[in-house]
Design brief:
The complex is a heterodimer of chains A (87) and B (447). Chain A is mainly alpha-helical and 87 residues long. Chain A is 83% helix and 0% strand. The model of chain A has no long low-confidence stretch (mean pLDDT 91). Chain B is an alpha/beta fold and 447 residues long. Helix content of chain B is 35%, strand content 17%. Chain B contains 15 helices and 20 strands. In chain B, α10 (235-238) links the parallel β9 (225-229) and β10 (250-253). The chains are: A mainly alpha (87), B alpha/beta (447). The A-B interface holds A 14-23, 26, 56, 62-68, 70-71, 74-75 and B 1, 54-55, 63-71, 75, 78-79, 82, 158-161, 163-164, 178, 181-182, 184-186, 188, 387-389, 403.
Amino acid sequence: MTPHWQAELEATVHAFRLGMEGAGNDHLKEFIDRLSGQLNAMSAYQQQEIHNVLAQTLDAQKRNDMIHIADLLEYEIAPLLTRCSSD
Amino acid sequence: MSVTLETNSSLQVNLSVADDRWRQQLGVIATRWPELARQLAHAPLSHHLWREDTPQPTLVIDGLHLASGYDAAAEAELQAAQIPCDQADCTVYGLGSGTVPRILLQRPAIRSIQIVLFNPSVARTCLSYYPMDDWLTDPRVELSLATGTSRVARPFAAVPPCLQLADEASAVLRDRVWLDLSTPFIRQKQADDAAHWQQRFEDNLDLINQDGDAACVKGICPDTQVLVAGAGPSLTDYAAVLQQRGGSPLIAASSALRPLAQAGVVPDLVVVIDGAKDLVLQHFDGLDLSVYKDVPLIYFPRVHRHVLQSWPGPRLTAFPSGVSFKEGTPTKQRLFCSGSVLHPAIDLAVLMGAREVVLFGADFGFPGGQSHASEAAHLHQVADRFAGHWVINVAGERIPTSASMRGYLRDLEAYISRHGEVRFVTVTTHGAQILGAENCQQIGAES
């Protein structure tokens, strides 16, 4: 079954890579909300790893660095979450 | 991650390679587009970093990544996919890594690609780091700099950071493209809001039925000057002038009431469109509302009934353009609205028959780092760099703004372009330039 964060993550990445800033920010907020509900099921180490990348993502959001936000979500956070789901 | 131009030894090597690549590609451009080559040659490199700590090297300009540092080809495929496969002629906004044109040129259907550059310095920097001579020589490619009057050419693919890094001369086209990219999101939001609009309409139905129709002001001020006040920071400089406005009627946004009241100004009409009860009630905080007992309030049906019932004067209903209501719903005068209260206030002035609409506090940005005029309910300081969004002000300087306000500005400009019969004037020293509106900085009682 597709994890319920995945659709939001993909929508966020898609929107930011295409320059759809409003949609990207909306999806990013929804993704983080969904992710927050799952963090308790992860180990402290996994939570820390995700927290670190999320901090970079939010920093990129402050600069409106949309391509970097998309990269961090697609190539850093998604593999981490997939690994957490399979552990 | 550092985004400053570093001077370590590996970067020195890169700079040398970059310089060679730039010279070579500039030579290609010079043979096809000599004027463009001259402009690029005079442009300095942007403040940049060539990142090599990502799986794929990538360019970062002014803190913005130009292309994915993980899979730039997949990203460019996604961007190019915005153009239908059977499309013969298309436009690419921005250069980036140059991968989007390369992908598009592989399509058999492609006959021409217009590539539009938004900033000569950014283009020069991209041309210094990414090889593009393979497609720069392709006769189907045309390369040009954006101009202030360009319209959005569809279909198009966009390289988002190149839009964000637009220079002053390209800012209008940047915003138009940005607005185009945002349209599906805006439409979705409007569709999500439709049920809320209908519900609020039904909640207010008794008031709407008993209140007047904004259509009753149609033509009441033929061939006159009508003043419109928004709550932008520059209203502070001119509120006192509005005290001696002579016979010109003044329409105020509800958010401008407090700054105007501070200067002893009572408008002739007030417009309110926001559905947030508490936010709008704050526009009235501390005001002696009894002075407005003869001032009509023009409102959209979504305004909370507590707001409507707290208004001491007559009320006139208007409906926003572009919003659909359930079939059979009685409607009243439609007024142009694309998000800002200034839109219906200006359309009301035109409806009244104005030959000249004079705008105050229509800044569409945060000149001086202020969100609103002094005394406005929601006045706050904003950061200098508001997520990178800016517009050019009447003094030719960048002022920070929000993505929404940029959209409101461009939609107002489109409205102005449809009303050639009316002269528009914006009175401000530091607010946004409004295309189609003249700027006036000194205003007397009769101007």
